[in-house]
Lipopolysaccharide export system ATP-binding protein LptB (Bradyrhizobium ivorense), 260 residues
Amino acid sequence: MDSVAHRLSAVGAGAALELRGVTRLFGALAALTDVTITVRPGERRAVLGSNGAGKTTLFNCITGDFPPSSGTIRFFGEDITQFPPYERIRRGLRRTYQISALFPGLTVQDNVYLACRGVSRGRFSFLRPGQNDALMHATDTLVQAVHLSAVKDQRVAELAHGQQRQLEIALALAGAPRFILFDEPAAGLSPTERRELIEILTSLPSHIGYIIIEHDMDVALRVVESVTMMHNGRIFKEGLPREIESDPEVQELYLGGGHE
């Protein structure tokens, strides 16, 4: 597996996201310990592991919600270790959360429009958008990309759970992101909704890389080209999806001894 890890992470130059020796302490508790990961531009990677493995803490360090206690984070070559979250967003980093963060009283279209407006230069303008407004066009494009055109005028509170997860992806796509962190997008989805999610993720523009945290390996391994396994806040394994899926240690530790 050493050669696999090397070819997946030996591309520091020109990397989209590069973590070196990232550690996060909460008092005496080490939630992350010496995590080193390199992700290429356009690469799609899964970060897998059981509850408590450190996956969400890893995302929080990358986005700046909980900066690392030590180590460095570089985004497209720029050191963002000490940047606040909004500066990372300005540079093209996006994230979804385990619990959907939406405006339930507004329509699907309004939610997406506000996301597009929020990352635009004219976000503080009081002018009402017209039919030919560029942000309205971007909104319609994103709504279509996540398969919600049929419900674009519906209030978010009336959507099915799976549709709300799809809407969150549209919000993450606002403003031409360069890299997205997806935090358990398949949580609570039905088999049909999971298939829809897979189709949406695999249809994203090829230049947009992402990391997905996901407990459903049947989803995760179908939408990525590389996998990082975490255990107790450390990197446990790295490899291609087929290698991780067939690895005996992974099966024993995470899958109960077997996985079809």
Summary: The first helix runs from residue 2 to 9. Residues 103-174 form one domain. The first strand starts at residue 17 and ends at 26.
